Amino acid sequence: ARGRRLRAHTSDEAGPGPMADRFRRDVDGACIMRRSYEDRGLQAKALVAVPSARLLEQAGMAHVSLPLAPGVGDPAARDALVKELMRWFKEDFFTWVNTIPCEGCGKETQGVGTTAPLDDERRYNANTVELYECKDPLCGAWSRFPRYNEPGKLLETRRGRCGEWANCFALIARAFGFEVRLIRDWTDHVWVEIWSEHLDRWVSADACEGPGAFDTPHMYESGWGKKLNYIVAVGLEHVVDVTRRYTKDFAGKVAPNRRLAPESHINEAIGVCHRVQEVHALNIGWTDNQGILKTRERLIIEQLSFLDVSSAELQPAEQSGRISGSAEWRRLRGEDGSQEQ
């Protein structure tokens, strides 16, 4: 994810304004990313990378074939399979990048800035490239870390920060047959939500934090200490503001931080993106009118559920600081749980 500096809006702004337009472009980018998970070739590539038989057996679903169809398998076992995926992804597959090893000698490096991507890096949707210099004066080589946004490429590189982690994990979960939403948080984080047939609702699944971060929505505010503002979910055929799921006090803690643009402009931007995503899914054939009606019903129920989040008891995992990233990096971001809430 990339940080965004917020600007206080003024009440006399007549149109959406540049900040609301930028917000919409960011949501548009997440919509395009979400559509890529439907690519059958990428899904096949993802399944090849995963020890599917072992994970299915560990979840008690050894008799089930992939991709999972809706309603197939015990609902609780499907959730267990998501957790096994999260465990494998964090412990065995993907690597968090604090700094990269020197491409010349393999020793430690230090960041020295960013540069524009090369043509081959752009091919895999790298918008920027981080540069690192070897700390060994006898080497002094510079190494490149392209921030790829193409999930198929991430299956090969298997490294990154939250953006790469969420992007790659979402593709794998979709390849397994789960309904997936990409979650974009404007305080610089990205994660995934999975539709739980067992709970009959969307649940958070942050692969960066491992299986303990399954259905722990208040982890970011209550555990990490994030000052949340906007959190948007992008699904196959919908886009929705889900900020209220992730806070226990929207009016007191979050609303004062929503200064990017007037709420009406933010709602309009999300609404436009939602309609585009819905029409695109219909035109491609990823859903039909019945599916759209089902999604709309889910969205209504979901919004009603946000009215009761303040009464939910915090889980132990929701009361701890972030574990992904170096200790110093987490401290500088104020996400290690040491900040006053």
What do you see in this structure?
With 341 residues, this protein is an alpha+beta fold. It has twelve helices and ten strands. It has helices at residues 17-36, 40-49, 52-58, 75-93, 119-122, 151-157, 162-175, 219-224, 250-254, 263-284, 289-305, 327-333; strands at 95-96, 109-115, 129-134, 142-146, 159-160, 180-185, 189-196, 201-205, 231-234, 239-241. The strands form three sheets. Strands 8-7-6-9-10 form a five-stranded antiparallel β-sheet. A three-stranded antiparallel β-sheet has the order 2-3-4, with no helix packed on it. β9 and β10 (239-241) form a beta hairpin. α1 (17-36) packs parallel to α10, α2 (40-49) packs across α7 (162-175) and α6 crosses α7 (162-175). The longest helix is centred in the C-terminal third of the chain and has 22 residues, at 263-284. The two termini are 23 Å apart. Mean pLDDT is 94; it is low at 1-14.
